[in-house]
Amino acid sequence: MAVKVAEEWLNICGGCEVSILDIGEPLLDILPAIEFVHIPVLMDHKYHGQTGEGDAHKIEIPEADVGIVSGGVRNEKEKLVALEMRKKCKTLISLGSCACYGGIPAMANMWSLTDMCDKVYRDSKSTEKADTPKENLPPLLDKVYALDEVVKVDLAIPGCAPHPDWIKEALVCLLNGKPFVMSEKSVCDECPVKREKKAAGGEIKRPLEGMQFKQDAPWEETRCFMEQGYLCLGPVTKAGCVGPATGDGEVKVPRCIKGYMTCRGCFGPVKKDSNPLVDMMGAVSSIGLDPKQVMDRRATLNRYIGGHGLLRPLPAKQVPVKK
Ligand code: SF4
Ligand code: SF4
Ligand code: SF4
Q1: Measured in angstroms, how far is the CA atom of residue 209 from the centroid of ligand 1?
Q2: Are 233 and 263 a contacting pair, CB within 8 Å?
Q3: Does the CB atom of residue 162 touch ligand 2 within 6 A?
Q4: 264 pLDDT more than 70
C-alpha cells in the first residue's frame, strides 16, 4: 500500500516547494511507493470542503503517514494549519529554514508586532501612511515561530532553499524504516579552499569588493574568503547544503562558495542549541578581523534563524537623567 504524504506551506516564499519539484527524475522512482493526498502547490484542496461550505472554523486535511510543512508560523491561520497537520500526520517533517528556524521572515522578531507594523505601514519613507490591514486577514501572532515551537516535529530538513536530494533521502529513509541523519559538521569542514589561519589584514570587506579567485582553478588555489577579509558564516553553519553524501569520492563544494560567494548561514546552526552570533564573533576574532566591524551584527549573524528566541526586541535604551 502506498505511503500517504501530505504537504503544507505556511509563512513561505514557495522556494521549498520548488525544491520538491526539483527532485527531478528520482521522484519518479519513489512515486509508485507514495501517494500525495494533499499538496496545495499541485492540488486544489479546499480547507473547508470542496464546495467551501464546510465548517468555517474547522480545517480539513486528509490523514497521512508523512506530513511535510514548509514555512514558519506568523499568523493564526498558519497556526491552525500546523496543528491540523500534526493531528493528521503520523510523522511530521519541517522543510526549509523558515520551518526549521523561522527563516528570513523571523528577522521581524527584532521588533514588537506594533513597532513592526508601524515601520511597514506608517514610518517607512517610501510608503504612504495607512492602517495595518485587518479585513479578511488572519490576525498576526506576536512574532514568527519556527514550526517546532508550535507542534512537535519528527525530522528537520534545513536550507533556503533545501537541497532536493535531502527531501528524497528523507522520504526513502521513511519508506525503508531507516533513520534520517544529517551531519553535525560545519560548512568550513566541507569547504576545500586553502586556509592559512590568519586574515590578510585590514577591514571586513563588502561582499562584492574584488574577491580573489581564479575561475575553474583547483579549489586549493583559492584562499578562504574569510581570510581574504569577507564575512563568511561557514564556521557556524551546518554542513550539507550540497545534499547527502554520495560516497563517490567527488569533492562537493558548498553551494555559495562554488559560486564565489560567502556562506550566509542558510543551513542554520551546526548543533541545535549553539549560538551562531557568539560563535561567529569568536571565529572572526580568531583570524585577526575585528568583529565590531560586522554591520548590523544581530541581524547578519542570525539572518535565517530568528525563531527559538534568538532574535527579540531589545529593551528600550535608558536615557540617563541629568541632575
Ligand atoms: S526556507 Fe527559503 S525557500 Fe523555503 S520558504 Fe523559506 S525563504 Fe522560501
Ligand atoms: S570561512 Fe567560508 S571560505 Fe573559508 S573555509 Fe569556511 S566556508 Fe570556506
Ligand atoms: S554555502 Fe551557506 S548560505 Fe550557501 S547554500 Fe550553503 S549553507 Fe546556505
Answers
A1: 27
A2: yes
A3: no
A4: yes
Cα 262 to middle of ligand 3, angstroms? 8
Q: Nearest 5 degrees, angle CA 25-CA 37-CA 21?
A: 25
Q: What is the mean pLDDT of residues 157-171?
A: 97
Q: How far apart are CA 101 and CA 305, in angstroms?
A: 5
CATH number of the domain at 3-176, out of 3.40.120.10, 3.40.50.10310, 3.40.50.700, 3.30.420.40? 3.40.50.700
Domain ranges of the chain: 3-176, 183-307
Asked if residue 221 lies in contact with residue 192, where contact means CB atoms within 8 angstroms, the answer is: no
Beta strands in 52-178 (DSSP E): 64-70, 73-75, 89-95, 140-145, 155-157
57-66, 71-80, 204-213: range with highest mean pLDDT: 71-80
Query: Which cell numbers hold the place of 101?
Result: 528556524
Sign of CA dihedral 299, 225, 162, 267: negative
pLDDT at 323: 66
CA of 232 to the centre of ligand 1 (A): 20
- Upstream peptide bond of 161 is cis (omega within 30 degrees of 0): yes
- Joined grid coordinates for residue 93: 517533517
